[in-house]
Amino acid sequence: MVKILDGQTEYRYGASAALTLYAGQNYAVEITATDDYNDGNKVVIELSDDSNIIATKYYLSDDGKVVWSGQLNIVQPGKYSITIWASDGNLTSESIILAIEAVIAPTPTPTVTPTATPTVTPTPTPWPVIVTDNLYSAEDISGQTDCDDLKGRELCVRWRVLPKTNIRQIHAYVAKNNETPVYLGQPEKINDNYLVWQRGNFPNINRILRNGPEGGNDYQFFIYFIYSRSREEPYTNSGPVYFELAPPPPVGENKVIVTDNPDGWENRASAGIIRLGENDNFTIKWNINYSDVSSFQAYIVNPSGQRYLGYSQSNYLVWSTQSPNISPEFRAGPQYDTHYKFRIYPLKPDHAPGRPSFYGPFETGYVRKVR
């Protein structure tokens, strides 16, 4: 049994474990992140996206503590470094303590064959930057093709390296078709490890690129960490992403549906129920194409009226604990066996408090989340 305990109180929290492991075995790992400052934010554990880790994604809990147990499946013998970090997004008063316990099964005695020298293939180092289809997807599509609707085109750039504690800014650049990289933008918060590039008037995105990625182009991304007197050389993804536009959506104009992922158009509200798999997301999506819409607001409709759910500048809204655009009242996500109906308001540019200006609204049918 090997235990590694590491508590840090910096703006980014992490621990690194280096274990010598043998081929053909599984190793159980348990990670606990404890937050001693109850501020209402959920604690997040994130693992480095290493090919030897079976499950890699965010793990969230209520404020205070989160525990994750997983397996390491080692194919090649050698020394492996697993990086884990935790945070709840609060930089003002924080102490996140990570405890990592790796339980290793009894080590077999390696068989030595004097007549043959085994060839050890080095474990490839994970790329420091990956590109995913959207904020809710974990698959790296570097070197592949992404296909989105005209109104929902987006890419999410993520970096898997930790900056130093005196970081001032994080800048993302993008190169289109091997041209000179241009400034794309920076994360909304300094402790974010991602940047979403999508169609919309987002102030953290370069104004000339706010139309989102364009069809028929290759995109390569570069991440710079900016300090007071220095700038780290850029981290980049393994290969350009080719972006193309999908055919027109298979639903009618001004139609609003409920589906299970941001890229889907299967209307779960037509059947009245939605059942989510492990990688699915409760998604409200619409085909609304007015040219002068600044953003969309979503409401939950009930017999007593309507309640504000969240907003989007794309053509969908994911209702989940990870979505930054959901109202705090509904941040826990949709509940099982509750009927929901949604209303979408496309807001015009002159919309303001006390002076509403919008199209529609447009509604879904009722849908119930089931197990």
Q: Can you describe this structure?
A:
This protein is mostly beta strands and 371 residues long. It has three domains: 2-103, Jelly Rolls; 129-245, Immunoglobulins (Immunoglobulin-like, Sandwich), CATH 2.60.40; 255-370, Sandwich (Immunoglobulin-like). 0% of the residues lie in helices and 42% in strands. Strands 10, 12, 13, 15, 16 and 17 form a six-stranded mixed beta sheet that branches. Mean pLDDT is 78; it is low at 1-19, 49-59 and 104-109.
What's the arrangement of secondary structure elements?
Layout: E1 2-8, E2 14-21, E3 25-35, E4 43-47, E5 58-61, E6 65-74, E7 78-87, E8 96-103, E9 129-132, E10 145-148, E11 154-159, E12 169-176, E13 182-185, E14 194-198, E15 217-226, E16 235-236, E17 241-245, E18 255-259, E19 273-275, E20 283-287, E21 295-302, E22 305-312, E23 316-318, E24 339-340, E25 342-347, E26 362-363, E27 367-370
Parallel strand pairs: 10-17, 19-27
Antiparallel strand pairs: 1-8, 2-7, 3-6, 3-8, 4-5, 4-7, 9-11, 11-14, 12-13, 12-15, 15-16, 15-17, 18-20, 20-23, 21-22, 21-25, 24-27, 25-26
Helix-strand pattern: EEEEEEEEEEEEEEEEEEEEEEEEEEE
The structure class reads mainly beta
Give the radius of gyration.
Answer: 23 Å
Number of domains: 3
CATH-defined superfamily of the largest domain: Immunoglobulins
Oligomer: single chain
Overview in brief:
This protein has 371 residues and is mainly beta. The protein has strands at residues 2-8, 14-21, 25-35, 43-47, 58-61, 65-74, 78-87, 96-103, 129-132, 145-148, 154-159, 169-176, 182-185, 194-198, 217-226, 235-236, 241-245, 255-259, 273-275, 283-287, 295-302, 305-312, 316-318, 339-340, 342-347, 362-363, 367-370. It folds into 3 domains: 2-103, Jelly Rolls, CATH 2.60.120.260; 129-245, Immunoglobulins (Immunoglobulin-like, Sandwich); 255-370, Immunoglobulin-like (Sandwich).
